[in-house]
Amino acid sequence: MRLRNLLFRTLIGATCLFVFNEFIIYYLVLIQCQWPGKSRSVDGQEPVKVMLLADTHLLGPIHGHWFDKLRREWQMHRVFQSAMTLFRPEAVFILGDIFDEGNWVNQKEFDLYVDRFRKLFHTPRGTGLYSIVGNHDIGFHYATHPYLVHRFEKTFNNTGVTLTSIRGVNFVLINSIAMEGDGCQLCETAEKEIRHVSAIFKCGRGVGQCSGVPKLEEYSRPIVMQHFPTYRDSDKDCKEHDAPQVEPFRERWEVISKESTDLIGELLNPRLAFSGHSHHYCFVERNRLGIEEYTLPSFSWRNKNDPSFILAKISQTGHAVSRCMMPVETTVIKLYLVGGILLVLSSIFRLVKYLCHLSVLFNARKKHYKLAK
Q1: Quick one: DSSP state of residue 313?
Q2: Cα–Cα distance, 316 to 43 (Å, whole number)
């Protein structure tokens, strides 16, 4: 009976350790994060609450080991759903590289990819989910194909330049792969779209010819969102960053080109920028366009030991940003190791105690048997 109790206690201890590391820890860490204070606004309007993350890199069938896939997707799912419960944002923006092998998989595999993504990153009613295309979704510019572009566009309704407005706050979602400026069809289409969006903003300010141009509900300078950061030579100018070392960036690989950056600035006149791609966090107070830019780290523990995401309050004239840390991978591993060792030692101690009790009981009965004989 006591042996059964020992096994039961060990099972309960292991279950508690698992539940803490796979459920409770996400709430304990995320509850330390809060929406930022009042946005820098004088318009008196309630700011739009936005959650931003990047580079989820859902593993595919080619390079993705089943356990690695199971582990990483569970972690991202728990953080995302815990954040939905705690923060209830109005909109979520994923800044590219949703998939790790989106440019390699066939249609059937892509459909399974999309189904997994929608299950992992399901949002509650009232929360919009916007997905921006990245190089792992359709390939780098030199390797992409119209079929891959169309496939992503059909699923996520975004592969060029898209204007999204939420209560007068305007977000422009840009395909970084199309910002090559080499005259290819994808780039020409994107440039036409960005000029079209520019015309909408000009009309919103009462400038230029507005015939045939959609009317902007409320004008405010836009927020640019794309996968690649705007041009900078490295992270050395970051006021905050978490890259292990500062390395030079290559145009059109780690960042978009100077020309494309200048084109975005000239046509859109943005007031704030968000990006991903580097897998590391960086906050630039004044980028090439003279505005704040936040480069988000990877949301996956496969790419980063201490991933994070951003909560932002954005009004028509101001913004406030808060960075939210996620559980550290090495901390979870240490908790499993320490908890497992303590559980094993406790079980061994109880087992030895139980065996000693049996030995004493056996010797007492043996002595009693001899006396009786």
Answers
A1: E
A2: 7
**CA distances for 258 relative to 49, 180, 329, angstroms:** 31, 10, 36
Q: What predicted TM-score, i.e. pTM, was given to this entire model?
A: 0.91
Q: What share of the chain is helix, strand, coil (3-state, %, to 5)?
A: 40, 20, 40
Sign of CA dihedral 149, 151, 154, 158: negative
- Residue that the structure tokens 């936040």 belong to: 294
Tell how strand 240-241 and strand 282-284 pair up.
Answer: antiparallel
**What is the number of other CB atoms lying within 10 angstroms of the CB of residue 159?**
26
Per-residue pLDDT of the chain (373 residues; tens, 9 = 90+): 567 787 888 899 999 999 999 999 999 999 999 999 865 554 567 899 999 999 999 999 988 888 999 999 999 999 999 999 999 999 999 999 999 999 999 999 999 999 999 999 999 999 999 999 999 999 999 899 999 999 999 999 877 899 999 999 999 999 999 999 888 999 999 999 999 999 999 998 888 778 888 888 889 999 999 999 999 999 998 999 999 889 999 999 999 999 999 999 999 999 999 999 999 999 999 999 999 999 999 999 999 999 999 999 999 999 999 999 999 999 999 999 999 999 989 888 877 777 777 777 777 776 666 666 5
From CA 57, how far away is CA 95, in angstroms rounded?
Answer: 11
Closest CA relative to residue 175, chosen from 211, 139, 207: 139
And the tokens for 269?
């006149």
Both tokens of 147, joined, read 């079929």
Q: Are 62 and 101 in contact (CB under 8 A)?
A: yes
Supply the DSSP string of 249-262, one letter for each residue. PPBTTTB--HHHHH
Q: Are 60 and 104 in contact (CB under 8 A)?
A: yes
CA distances from 295 to 95, 100, 267, 357 (A): 10, 19, 22, 63
The answer to whether 173 touches 161, Cβ cutoff 8 Å, is yes
Mind giving me the DSSP string for 108-157?
HHHHHHHHHHHHHT---TT-EEEEE--HHHH--TTT--HHHHHHHHHHHS
Pair of tokens at residue 97? 């590289």
**Cross-strand partners of 313:** 49, 320
Beta bridge partners of 53: 94
